[in-house]
Amino acid sequence: MSSNNSPFVIAVDHCSLIVADTDKALEFYQGILGLPLDDSRPDLGYPGAWLQVGSGQIHLLEVPNPDSMENRPAHGGRDHHVALQVSDLNALMQRLDKAAIKYSKSKSARTALFCRDFDGNAIELVEK
Fold first, then answer.
1. Which CATH architecture has domain 14-64+73-127?
2. Residue 108: CB atoms within 10 Å
3. Can you tell me whether residue 22 is helix, strand or coil?
4. What is the pLDDT of residue 61?
5. In 1-128, which ranges are continuous DSSP H helix?
6. Is 101 exposed, middle or buried (0-12, 13-18, 19+ CB in 10 A)?
7. DSSP H helical segments within 28-124, as ranges?
8. What is the per-residue pLDDT across 58-84, written as a single tens digit (0 to 9) for each?
9. 48, 61 Cβ separation under 8 angstroms
10. Per-residue pLDDT, 109
């Protein structure tokens, strides 16, 4: 039970990202970022995947995207994005470079960068 001064929201459980091709998206999220697949995803009537991120998850949804991906800002920090904490940003930058994935460093003076997955979803990678 929560007191009047305690927050009701205590954590982020998951976020959902729309992708055009689940297998291609997994090349980014599993292959480059190294996120493990959660095989407990039930048949939801459309393709997708659940990926484990600490105690939370990223849900990939292969469904029609209602949002235009045109005219998105080049710097992902000016777009809606998911921020993921990473253990070694320099090593991850090498993986992004090898995969020819463009990124820009955070403008907030944090050890962080922004990139986009193969579907144009903005991802912030933060080393703490």
1. Roll (3.10)
2. 9
3. helix
4. 98
5. 22-26, 89-98
6. middle
7. 89-98
8. 999 999 999 888 888 888 888 999 999
9. yes
10. 87
The length of the chain is 128
Please identify which residue in the block is written with the tokens 């954590």: 11
Q: Are 41 and 104 in contact (CB under 8 A)?
A: no
Place of tokens 């820009």: 104
Token output for 51: 């990926």
Q: Residue 17's beta-bridge partner residues?
A: 60
- In angstroms, rounded to a whole number, what is the distance separating the alpha carbons of residues 77 and 28? 19
Which of 124, 12, 122, 25 minimizes the C-alpha distance to 67?
Answer: 122
pTM of the model: 0.90
Rounded Cα gap, residues 28 and 35, in angstroms: 9
Q: Are 58 and 51 in contact (CB under 8 A)?
A: yes
Residue showing tokens 């992708």: 19
Residue 1 has pLDDT above 70, yes or no: no
Residue 75's identity, in one-letter code, is H
The domains of the chain are located at: 14-64+73-127
